[in-house]
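Morning, I've got a small favour to ask if you have a moment. I've dropped the whole record in just underneath, so have a look.
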Amino acid sequence: MPLVRDKVHYHATGDSVIRVENTLFKIHKFPLVQSSPVFESMFSLPVATNEAEGLFDDRPIILVGDTADDFRAVAKYMYASPIHIQTYSITETALPEIVSVAKFAHKYDMDFWQEWALRILARLLFDLSLLPVEHFPALYSLYHRLADYPTRNRIMKHWCEVVRRDRLSIVSILLAADAADDRDALAVIYCTEIIRRENGGVGFDLQALGQVLPRIHIKRLLSGYASLSAWKEKKAVNQQDLTADPQALMVRDWRFSLQKVFLGCPPHSIDANQMPRMDALFTTLAAFPMNTEYLTFTKIGKVMRLISLLDLHKVPHDSEFHFRDRAKELVNRWYNVLRADDLMRYFSELVNDSHDKH
C-alpha cells in the first residue's frame, strides 16, 4: 500500500517523521521523549547525519506491531490542551481511543499516559451493562495484555452473559478467549453454544462457524454435543432407577433420621440420648461413597448444611461429638462431589485435553 500522510498529525513544524503501518506522522519528539524511556533511548542513538531516521518521509522511524489508529489516539491527547485531557470530561464515545492509548503506553513504558488511560477506563467500566458489546474485544485484549486478570475476567463474564442473553455469535468472544488461552472462558463459550443446539438450534450454525473458526473449535463443539447427549441419557436412567435402589433409599432414611433428631424438635429440645446414635450415623456417612445421584435424590446435603449452621448451645454434647464441624466437613466434601460431576467440568477437561493435542 502507498504511504499516506496523516490528515491531522503531520505537523509542518514537527521534527520527527514516524511511520505506523502505511501512515506517516510528523510530530514533535519532545512529548514522546519526555514520557517514554523507550523513545528517549530511540531518539538518542548516535547515527551519522546522512543516515538519521525520522527527518524525511523517505527515511521515517518505523514502529512495528502498532496500528495507525493507536498512534493517532496517542498523538491526539499529547497535543490536546489540558482541559481536554481531564479524565472526568472523557465519555464512552472516546473509549476506543483510550484503549489505544493504554495499549501503546504500556508497550513503550509511558507511565503517565498508561495511568491516565486506566483511570478513565476504570470509571467507564464501573457498570459494564452500559457499554456496547463491540467494545468488549478490545477491552478484554487490553486487560489480558496488562495481566490485570480480575478486570479481564469480569469483562469476559459479562460478555458471555450478553452473548447468551442476546443470542449473539460466539465467533469474536471465542477468538478473543483463544488468543488469551483463557480456558475457563472457552469452556463457558462452548457450553453456551452446545446448549443452544440442544434447545432447538437458535443461534447455532455449525457450517457458518466452520468458515471462520479454526478446526479445533469445531471438533470440541461436536465432541461436547455428543457427550452432552450421553450425559443426559445417563442421568435420566440413573434418576429412574433410584426409587428401586436400596442404597439410595438407605441414604434417604439417614436424611430423615438427621432431620428428625436435629431439625424436627423445638429449640433447645434436641434429645441428648440420641447423640451417640447420631455419632455412629455421622461416622457411617463419612465412610459412605456418596455420589451426585444420591445427593440429588435424597437432599441430604441440605439437611447437613442446616445442621452445620445450628447454634452451639442447641446441640447437646457437641463439644464431645463435634456434629456441627463434621456436618460442615461433609457439606464441603459433597459439594466437591457435585462439582466433579458438573457438566462444566467436562467442558473444562475438553478444552485442556484438546489444547494439549492441538
User: Anything to note?
Assistant: The first helix runs from residue 29 to 35.
